Amino acid sequence: MKVLHVGYGFRPWRSGGLIEYTEDLMSEQVKKGYEVAYFCSGRHYPIYTKTLLKKWRKNGYTIYEIINPPIYHGGDNGTLFDLSSDVIEKLFSQVVYEYKPDVVHIQELAGLPSSLIDIIKYNNIPVVMTLQDYFLLCPTLKLFDYNQNDCFEENVGNKCVKCIKYSLDSIKRNLIRNTLIYEFKKVTILFMLLRPFYRAVKKIFINRKKDISENYSLGGDNFFQIRRHTNIERLKKIDFLIAQSHKVEEIYKFFIKKCRITTVNLTVDHIEKIKPKLISPKIPIKFGTLNGLISVPKGAYLLCKAVEILNSKGLDSKFELHVFGGILSSIEKKIPKYKNIFFHGWYRVE
Questions:
Q1: Phi, psi for residue 11 in degrees, rounded to 5
Q2: Max mean pLDDT range (18-22, 203-207, 265-269)
Q3: pLDDT tens, residue by residue, 284-313
Q4: Under the phi-then-psi rule, with left for phi > 0, alpha for psi from -120 to 50, and beta for the rest, what region is 24?
Q5: Any residues with CB less than 8 A from the CB of 142 and at least 6 apart, and which?
Q6: In contact, 127 and 120? CB cutoff 8 Å
Q7: Which of 75, 84, 143, 149 fits a disulfide with 115 by CB distance 3.0 to 4.6 angstroms?
Q8: What value does the mean pLDDT take over residues 215-220?
Q9: What stretches of 207-263 adopt beta strand conformation (E)?
Q10: With contact defined as beta carbons under 8 Å apart, do 111 and 44 qualify?
Q11: End-to-end alpha carbon distance in the chain
């Protein structure tokens, strides 16, 4: 079977569970004898900004990487103007024509136009899509608004503008910075020699918050309302949707009344290598979280509130919370007052 996956980036240019799952799945399919290719939005470079297609190999599969894509994916900070792109649509149509996949699996459409769904259907190719967040419904991924509430309104109005944190220029600078860091780190010795230059580049491309309201007008219409409606209609064309949890399935069914969807609990390879041990509990009991304090949607305030409640009941000597990964600056300042929260910083998967 010839499978074409569609997604965002690759390791180590990009990190996190989504890309890890994507690459694990493709590697597993290669082992099973599938012919596998991956079309993705990729690196952004300064100075030379022409959009082009780079074809290369990794772990037995072919990667078709869009260099300097004109859609700037901002992740949790927000993305806009991603409904269509003439240049990306042309390159994708070229790949589909040359590769002739039996099936297309959309991992993500980050940094890509959702119009690729229409191209796949126009070519009568079966298509499935994995739903690991709510990106096509929400430009900041989480359906979690600036007031820290779930966002299930049908009419979003101008609400999305308030949720997006940075301007287009700031998001683009961040993408260029990540690419430069990746390229420098590929050659460790060169990276060490160019460390002063890297620090200067980091300052140049650091995110600067701006007034972003001028970015979001399409002929007087509300872009984000059009975006949600258009993407819901495109999601209806997908032959099969795969939700990573029953809650994700429930939420998509709320927005898309009739769709073929099922839940498959996803995993990643390195978690399967963990060997759990049964131990007799000792006091203090040690709890750990990976990136649990990195953001509000991940549960940062919820975890801290749980610690406060337990400590108020006189249980502070009975347990410890060990925090790995990123941490909200507002919480990091408060950690010293907790004698039973320990912050260990970033960690490697290994």
A1: -85, 145
A2: 18-22
A3: 999 999 999 998 888 899 999 999 999 999
A4: alpha
A5: 76, 133, 134, 297
A6: yes
A7: 84
A8: 45
A9: 240-243, 261-263
A10: no
A11: 32
Q: Which residue has the tokens 């898309």?
A: 256
d(CA 181, CA 183) in angstroms, rounded, equals: 6
Residue 197 CB coordination number (10 Å)? 12
Q: Which pTM value belongs to this model? A: 0.85
Question: 3-class DSSP state for residue 234?
Answer: helix
Q: Give the residue from 63, 64, 62, 82 showing the smallest Cα distance to 72.
A: 82
Task: With beta carbons less than 8 A apart as the criterion, state whether 347 and 294 touch.
Answer: no
- pLDDT in the model for residue 218: 43
Q: What is the dihedral of CA 95, 179, 75, 214, to 10 degrees?
A: -100
CA 264 – CA 336 distance, rounded (Å)? 40
Q: What would the DSSP string read from start to end of 93-138?
A: HHHHHHH--SEEEES--TTS-TTHHHHHHHTT--EEEEESS-TTT-
Q: What rounded mean pLDDT belongs to the chain?
A: 88
Tokens 């927005």 belong to: 255
Q: Which tokens is 111 given?
A: 């940094």
